[in-house]
Amino acid sequence: MSLILDHVTLAPPGGARLFAPLDVTIAPGEVLCVTGPSGIGKSSLIALIGGFLPCGFRAEGRVLLNGVDLAGQPPEARRIGLLLQEAPLFPHLSVGDNLAFALSPRVKGRAARRAAIEEALEQAALPGFAGRDPATLSGGQRLRVSLMRALLAEPAALLLDEPFSRLDPPLRAEFRAFVLGHLVARAIPALIVSHDAEDAATATRCCALAPPAPSG
Amino acid sequence: MVLVAALMLVLIGLPVLAGLGVMLAQAWGQGWPDLPGLAVGLRLTLVTGVGATLLSLAVSIPLARWLWARGAARGWLAPFLAVPHAALGLGLAFLLAPSGWLVRLLSPWATGWNLPPQLVTVGDPWGVTLILGLLLKEAPFLILVTLVAAANLPVARIMAEGRSLGYRPGQVWLRLIWPQLYPSLRLPLFIVLAFSLSVVDMALLLGPSHPPTLAVQILRLFTAPDPALQGPAAMLSLLLLGVMAGAIGLWIGAERVLAALARRWLRRGVRGGWRLDAAPVLAVSGVALGAGAAGVLLLWSLATRWHFPAALPEGLSMAAWRAARWVAPAAETLLIGAAVILVALLLALIWLEAEDRSGRRLRLGAFIVLPLLVPQIGFLQGLAAGFLHLGLPPGRIAVIWAELLFVFPYVLLALAGPWRALDPQQVIAAASLGAGPWRRLWRIKLPLLAGPLATAAAIGFAVSAAQFLAVLLPGAGRVQVLATEAVALASGADRRLSALHGLLLAALPLIGYAAALWLPLWLWRDRAAMKGSA
């Protein structure tokens, strides 16, 4: 149950490699923080692992999840959850329906599904929010729902793209602890890209993306 | 992707090419038809077609600037866009004729007329009324296209920069902003030019009849009982195609000359000129004419008796409405419209979703707009003949297919912008939650695009309801919709019936637009972030 990046690098359309090949294994429950200056390709790395790299990007190396090479698999088949910068919720669905959209179809029956969603909302300290319009949520509330939504889909790994950068600094520590706590509890590998030193400090491990070697 | 491209080519591209092919075949070997009034008809076609296009463009420039700063006033564009040419033409005829409402309102107290004056207004030999009718329909279209293009430009910033250099807003618009928008206006302008050169319904209602424009002459030949006239008709269609190609060629040439002249004028840095802003006057006259046309249709549809100099009918009654002759054509219009927008929306969804899944653009844009750029009269007659060869008899199905050619480009264009502007993060988020492409389409994309889908359907219905030749020719007279009935009744004796059909023809697309505005508001009444998506 681990996420392995095997000499992974990528290049934009018609461009040179963005960073030196990354070679790292993320164990279950481990949180790897990938840092690097802006423009080096942190978000593109997330897109590569998630399977939604824009057309024309060239990827090198292999991404393995639980020993399976993800190359060629569509994003919906990868079981990789995402927590994006803005933590966007589907604007046309209520908070509860956002979660229901993610909840595995294996949870059957209306009552059981409703209970699972209510439980997730309680874990997010948002009990009774199921009927709310996502547009009425604060940034922090949206982030918590977004994490719960990702976790309800039972991902085998989670990717986080600067998830705390839009929050006010006093809130950041609180949400960082909230998110990391859930990750450790689920025992899934997680990769977080950030240029926040605090994020790096709380992660279990850190690595920096380096510019590619001149010869590469 | 290849399959999708093939589907579009067979359904949209093939009929156009087949129609043009049949037209060429019919014209083959035909000598120059020796018809009285041909030269006059050709001159009329050029004067009305090119004149209406140039005037529409000229008034669209100040009006677009004026409306750009007045978001609320833009709502006035919608009725002009929605109302079919035939309905507006009929209304204008009732308004502007020597015995029309305008003269009635002024008589006899201001004019002294107790009988309709011996003037020729509607159907004047120069085509002035026809140009006015086209102007009222085409200028709003060009204004809308200008405003849509302006949304992609930092208009406010350019305006501030230009004004800080001492130019007035209108001058900044004409010198700095409009030239940047012009590339987006070219295709719509060619569509307006092609339409104005070959318009039939409005030309029948407002244009001269002895002799009429080329397109009307062609229709008369095609629908004549003598089959020997088919050849000359096809020959004239070819001539019209040549006129159109020549006009577009001349336009492109004129663009270059004017651009060079305009640059010289720009370099001189002239800031003077008259301060009068024509936009409010133009806007008010346009709205007054439109409202007058609608009002006179309503009054005539309810009038019991309405003798000449009276400003209003003697009495009102629902007799014409109760006679219910309008029910069948109205139902036919709705039925055909529903079928056409259903197919057009489905094709547009297939097109856009195929692009998303393959990650490539379908490069068939030129094919799709082809029906809007060739003379309708020629290729629709060819198409009807082609359908017959394929075993598709004239009738409802043939009409639906023919209308699809004109409806699909507008539906696709209306949907493509919002579709491509959809936040990709939402789709990525859904995929990361395990939703496959179908679930993403049904649960995320289509609901998020409910507003644009409703708008595209309303536009599609308006285009469908406005089709005249696409019903008349492939339907071979067996399919009667409001547009064909309104034009047919216009030359009849019963003004009430005629006005009633025109009014209904105008009202149905307007109701469609209103429903398209209301649907997303109702659907998303509890979703704050979805309010702006209509």
TrEMBL record, chain A:
Keywords: ATP-binding, Nucleotide-binding, Transport. Residues 3-213 form the ABC transporter domain. Signal peptide: none annotated. One of its GO terms (molecular function) is ATP binding. SMART domains: AAA. SUPFAM superfamilies: P-loop containing nucleoside triphosphate hydrolases (SSF52540). It holds the Pfam family ABC_tran. It comes from the Bacteria. This is ABC transporter ATP-binding protein. It comes from Pseudothioclava arenosa.
Automatic annotation (TrEMBL), chain B:
It is found in: Cell membrane. CDD domains: TM_PBP2 (cd06261). Keywords: Cell membrane, Membrane, Transmembrane, Transmembrane helix, Transport. The chain crosses the membrane at residues 42-64, 76-97, 181-206, 233-258, 279-303, 323-352, 364-392, 398-416, 448-473, 503-524. One of its GO terms (biological process) is transmembrane transport. It is a multi-pass membrane protein. One of its GO terms (cellular component) is plasma membrane. Residues 42-252, 330-516 form the ABC transmembrane type-1 domain. This is ABC transporter permease. It comes from Pseudothioclava arenosa. The lineage of its organism: Bacteria, Pseudomonadati, Pseudomonadota, Alphaproteobacteria, Rhodobacterales.
